[in-house]
Amino acid sequence: MMRNPVRHVLIVQLLLYSVFVRQLIFNRRRSKEFQELIDNFLS
Length: 43
Known about the structure:
2 helices; 0% strand
């Protein structure tokens, strides 16, 4: 049985991303500078 590490990594990335987005939405009103930091990081 062969493993697929790429798929595993993608699943982990998705989980981290979902948690990250949830935190971002939760803290959105509280920290605007954090959102700007994220925007700078993504752009």
